[in-house]
Model the fold of this input.
Amino acid sequence: MSKYSVIDLFAGAGGLSLGFMQTQKYDIKVAFENSPYMQNTYRRNHPNVEVQGDVCTADYADIVRKHGTIDVVIGGPPCQGFSNANRQKNHVISQNNMLVKQYLRAIIELQPKAFVMENVSMLRSDVHRFYMEKADVETVKRCNIPVKDTLLQLIDNNFLFDGAQEIVKSESKVKEFLWPEDDYFELNVIYKYSRNISKMVKALEKHKKKLLEIAKKYLSLEETNYIFIESKKAFKALIEYYENKRSAESISDEIEKSIMIQRMLSKANEIFANQILVDEYVQENGLSAKIRSFAVYDYICGILKAPENNYVISSNVLCAADYGAPQKRMRFVIIGIKNSIATKIALPKGSFDSDEYRTVRDAISDIEDIDPVYSLEDDKDGIDISPKENLGPLATSLRNSNVLHNHIITKTTDIAMERFKAIKQGQNFHSLAEKLKTNTYTDATRTQNTIYLRLNYDEPSGTVVNVRKSMWIHPTQNRAISVREAARLQTFPDNFVFCGTKDKQYQQVGNAVPPIMAKAIAKKLAQTLTKNLTKQ
Done:
């Protein structure tokens, strides 16, 4: 039988695609990926797939003309919802919400036989929600998607001022008082470090030229209203610091109000830009916008189960270790099939019990004696390696090349090396003596347990992230985990080569779906499709 044709949306480096290809039951026609680095990686490893960029500009009718009917849509749209809203970045309504809608557009327009969508495990949680946009109203009503009222706090009581509500209701007033993004960024960098004075002083020095340029603009403002007065006060405090008339410690109080007002204006601006429906503004413990919201998962299911699409859907949080990966990565997977093909669908059960989990040793110990390189130049041709006897099943499947690419790390600083030497397997930054914790993080006590983690050879790893940023340490060597070692923990075989700078390589590996888990899903889906289509 001919293979099922596939398009992969938000393909990244191609972990999901690789798992599907490994079953030999699918033919991937087109992959969409916006990042140039990831595109290069994808093209290198999937040379026969057409790679396109921005999924928002996808012309699915043209794809069908060129490649024929698409049987399966796969992909992992990034989705913050607003439960993750990062107040430092000041964006509460993530543009990523639009990308989930783009994934749905592909299914609605292509009407494939089946689809697979993977995402972070928290996506199924009720707190992971979208705000109601004007364009959603009709869809939400027609698909019976549950909605509830949500309060979006714009500003706390401590910083509320007379006239704030009138300003946030008016798009023109919001735009009048909202600083350019760069101006806010420069001042926010200083505010962010206000709990760590030594870091704040360094930031003040580093950003001095830009801050002084920006300050001139705000010092010339007429003191005609409260926002201008506070803006002027904030930048005046900076100038006084640079003129040695004020201490660094006293700056944060002077700039805090302006930062909070700008965050309020930024949220109000996003409400207008995204056409979010506001039912009312509530002045209670500050100022909030009362808006309607719905769970992302309810939205996806409501639309795809609707009669005009008619998919049967199953979903679950899968642990990669259950499918043979040497890491406990949790991903939320939604799988759907046309009701006309099958009346039920299920995700595959894992074939590894927790006492059988593969370990870090299974994945990387066979290359621990190979010294990593430090530069992209040295990695250009890779490292020649000889075949090895008596490897376990995982290492045997991963060590499928005589050349080791991406076995590359960053040079270790003296302080990092001191820390590496002090940390035993399974320990992290928190196990260090106090003298080794200084001058690194704003608040060392809040450092995540994944930072400076020395992997334990005899356990699966935790979720592989950008392990360079997290400073993961090799179980037995006093050095960082290489890109290749991180890729093996993700179950990418050695002949899969990552492109781009070192940091981009680490990032691509951390973002990827473990191919071994993708393969299990792909295999199960192919069985379901074949069994039901042969009946028809």
Observations:
- The CA atoms of residues 401 and 495 lie 5 Å apart.
- The radius of gyration is 26 Å.
- Residues 251-273 form the longest helix (23 residues).
- DSSP finds 20 helices and 13 strands in the chain.
